[in-house]
Amino acid sequence: MSTEGRQKWVWVLGSLCVLLVAGYLGVPVALEALGRSLIQHDPLRQADAILVLQGDDEIGSRVSHAVRLFKDGYAPLLVISGQPVMWETHSAYIMTRQALAMGVPGDRIMAVRHEADSTKEEAAAVLPELTRREVKSVILVTSSFHTRRAKRVFQAGPGGDRFEWMVSPAQDRYFSPDRWWTRRRDARTFFYEGTKTLWYLIAE
After folding, report:
1. H, E, C per residue of the chain
2. 173 lies in a domain?
3. Domain span including residue 170
4. CATH of the domain at 86
5. Is residue 8 part of a domain?
6. Per the structure, how many domains does the chain have?
């Protein structure tokens, strides 16, 4: 093989090595971007209500985040959405107790109990209650990985386009976009929510 031919192959192999290394190093960046694509964090301003969606984790991350917003004066009303969790026990009752224990006055809490089994059904149950209370603007609180889809679902719900929506993510113990693929629990949450998001975009 001529010197020119060897130099050509060295260049080709060197280029392939560079591409492989760049691709390998780029995978974490791409995966993290995918994780962050599930999350939406809107600029917040004064609203009529803070709405906490059902499905909180065991330590009440969503309620804790919503109470902090309430105490910071972002809204005068805390709306808690929940479904039954076991015999004669309702998640809205548990979440309300947590909010009360954290110092939210009872007359500033509105619990919406329902049997919704999806975010779409939850929106259909909660939106009429917000309308009855003449709420116009809402800060939507849910787990970080659920924020982008939840906002879309509530905006598209019955009468949802009449509200001003701002979404504020609560840090959930089951997901962090930082290297989520290295933790089984986070990866499970990503694929679960990612599948729901794709299904919503395709089927709705």
Report:
1. CCHHHHHHHHHHHHHHHHHHHHHHHHHHHHHHHHHHHCCCCCCCCCCCEEEECCCCCCCCHHHHHHHHHHHCCCCCCEEEEECEEECCEEHHHHHHHHHHHCCCCHHHEEEEECCCCCHHHHHHHHHHHHHHCCCCEEEEEEEHHHHHHHHHHHHHCCCHHHCEEEEEEECCCCCCCCCHHHCHHHHHHHHHHHHHHHHHHHHC
2. yes
3. 49-203
4. 3.40.50
5. no
6. 1
Q: Is residue 16 part of a domain?
A: no
204 residues of the chain, pLDDT tens digit each: 555 445 444 444 544 444 444 444 567 777 788 888 899 999 999 999 999 999 999 899 999 999 999 999 999 999 999 998 888 788 999 999 999 999 999 999 999 999 998 999 999 999 999 999 999 999 999 999 999 999 999 999 999 999 999 999 999 888 998 888 889 999 999 889 988 888 877 766
